[in-house]
Write a structure and sequence with these properties.
Length: about 325
């Protein structure tokens, strides 16, 4: 049996740190409010000339090095992003060119905060069916470009960054299962609108609007949906909660993360948390958190790891794997 196995990980954060105290100088908020409601203390923000592809390239090069791969070994490039450099070509094509990969399939996936989960499960299917041997899968975001910096209810939440993995065909496990879902009925609870418009059913150019969110409702649906998703993932694999060594959740809010950990009967020591330093980097948050925990030695070969995400759409999904 062929599995898709994570061969190496990489991550990259822009240099500029924006603390809660700095935000409190421009909008009516406080470090205390932000930390108690979200767990976020600081986030990274790109320079004015830095793009999602710039971040992706740095994360991808690090992942290639960690996997001991050359760019020439890659036969599939998938980039999860909500904030592409251009409407087209895709950020995956731009990244492919930067890395000197010419010929193999390259495309973007847009599932907002669940984008990386979608991307890695698509790559897994290419590998399992023999259509690819080595895939580069990246989550990269410049969410700061979609944020209305005058809106205190959203501007405190988001950050920029990129994470990457190299997925390779292997006889050893490997990704054990992937579970993807979406329900567009929730399209208006978390969306990007033109300023001043209700935003619904309008065609927008990429990055021309700002994030609008009904935070309370998003929070409630996220917690119940992730609860069911974790149950679905365990049942599909015939596993108990105690079989999971690490949880690598989407980093939106520490309260959502804690609720999922509780559902799994996990202590917070088994949960990879970066939301305090990264904020919500949307499709980049899961691969960034994974890279942090692989590099600091917490996640070891043979560990069973659950990644899960929830985001605009709504979209949600999980990937269970043996590292
Ligand atoms: N600083 C101070 N006060 C604020 C701020 C702020 N940054 N933002 C909102 N407030 C105020 C509100 O105006 C409101 O004031 P009012 O009572 O006078 O009207 C009060 O705080 C409470 O606002 P709520 O929205 O009810 O606050 P809540 O406890 O729900 O926390 C939050 C808001 C953090 C957004 C929460 O709803 C949440 O985490 N939701 C999940 C959404 C999320 O994480 N989205 C990220 C993208 S989706 C994803 O990745 C899953």
């Amino acid at each position: 049996m062929t599995y898709a196995r994570i061969l190496g990980t990489g991550g990259f954060l822009p240099r500029r740190v924006v603390t809660n105290a700095e935000l409190a100088r421009t909008v009516d908020t406080s470090d205390e409010w932000i930390v108690s409601r979200t767990g976020i203390r600081e986030r990274r923000i790109v320079a004015s000339d830095e793009t999602s592809c710039d971040l992706a390239e740095r994360a991808a090069r690090q992942a290639l090095e960690a996997a001991g791969c050359l760019a020439a070994d890659i036969d599939l490039v998938i980039v999860a992003t909500t904030t592409p450099d251009r409407v087209f070509p895709s950020t995956a094509c731009l990244l492919q060119d930067r890395l000197g990969i010419h010929g193999p399939a390259a495309f973007d996936v847009q599932a907002v905060c669940t984008g990386f989960i979608y991307a890695i499960s698509i790559a897994e299917k290419f590998i399992k069916t023999g259509s690819a041997k080595r895939a580069l899968v990246v989550g990269t975001e410049t969410m700061s470009r979609l944020v209305n910096w005058q809106d205190r209810s959203t501007c405190v939440l988001f950050g920029d960054g990129a994470g990457a993995v190299i997925l390779g065909a292997s006889a050893e496990p490997g990704i054990l299962s992937a579970h993807l879902h979406a329900d567009g009925a929730y399209k208006d609870l978390l969306t990007v609108t033109e300023d001043g418009a209700d935003g619904t059913d309008r065609v927008l150019a990429a990055a021309s609007g700002h994030i609008a969110m009904r935070g309370n409702e998003v929070f409630r649906v996220a917690v119940t949906t992730l609860d069911a998703l974790v149950g679905e993932t365990l049942a599909a694999n015939g596993l108990n909660q105690s079989d999971i060594r690490w949880l690598v959740p989407h980093q939106a809010n520490i309260r959502i993360i804690s609720a999922t950990a509780k559902r799994l009967g996990m202590s917070m020591e088994q949960v990879i948390v970066t939301v305090d330093r990264h904020g919500n980097t949307s499709g980049a948050s899961i691969p960034l958190a994974l890279d942090v925990a692989v590099r600091d030695g917490r996640i070891q070969r043979g560990d069973v790891v659950l990644m899960e995400g929830f985001g605009g759409g709504f979209t949600w999904g999980s990937v269970l794997f043996t590292y």
